[in-house]
Design brief:
Distance between the termini: 24 Å
Order of helices and strands: HEEHEHEEEEEEEEHEEEH
Number of domains: 1
Radius of gyration: 18 Å
Strand content: 35-45%
Largest sheet: 14 strands, mixed
Oligomer: single chain
Number of strands: 14
């Protein structure tokens, strides 16, 4: 998290939180959702400004309730998640491929899940910034950066790449099997999308 953001929290500790105005879509884009977009359940406008996208990514964090937010200076902007807190891409390299999140951080896979719509989710470890303060009004903050278990939706452009790594078997409502990553065989299990937030402890639509 940016030092200037942490300083602003000390200087202005009681700025009201913001809800509903920022979303993370299924392709890892941050989207601004004005009152019209919120009232009409629209996705909002994708943020195209490179520096702003990078600023959001550097100051992306979660609280102990599983609510993800962008710390915009002294104001906490809670994020509506279209799918999961992380969206990952498979990045080919000269050696082994890597998994990178929408924040350009590394995601270390331990398994994968497939839902009823054919979406693939990667489970594993990611370095995350967590506010461990118990104060709901955010009058103090205790940010730590830890590597913790989480879940990420695989970008749909990379489904074919994943299929090349996988051995599939058909299940009742989805697919199971295994997949190969850096010389290891990892599990691929079925799940229903409605189970994701409860199983992995995140809030898709934080509310006041």
């Amino acid at each position: 998290m940016d030092e200037q953001v942490l300083r602003s929290l000390i200087k202005w500790p009681n700025v009201p939180h913001c809800f509903g105005w920022l979303a993370l879509d299924r392709r890892g884009q941050w989207r601004m959702r004005d009152e019209f977009a919120q009232a009409n359940n629209l996705p909002g406008n994708a943020i195209q400004h490179t520096a702003l996208n990078e600023f959001i990514a550097r100051n992306y964090a979660c609280d102990t309730k599983g609510r993800y937010f962008f710390q915009n200076g002294p104001q906490r902007v809670f994020i509506t998640l279209d799918a999961t807190p992380w969206i990952v891409r498979i990045i080919p390299t000269d050696a082994e491929p890597n998994l990178l999140t929408q924040c350009q951080s590394s995601f270390k896979p331990q398994g994968a899940l497939s839902d009823e719509s054919g979406n693939i989710y990667i489970t594993g470890l990611v370095k995350n910034t967590v506010d461990e303060s118990a104060n709901a009004e955010n009058t103090s903050n205790d940010f730590i950066q830890i590597e913790c278990p989480s879940i990420a939706l695989l970008h749909d452009h990379d489904l074919d790449l994943f299929a090349d790594l996988a051995k599939l078997r058909e299940e009742a409502c989805s697919f199971g099997g295994s997949w190969s990553w850096h010389g290891e065989t990892l599990p691929l299990d079925p799940i229903h999308s409605d189970e994701l937030s409860e199983c992995f402890g995140f809030v898709k639509k934080p509310k006041e």
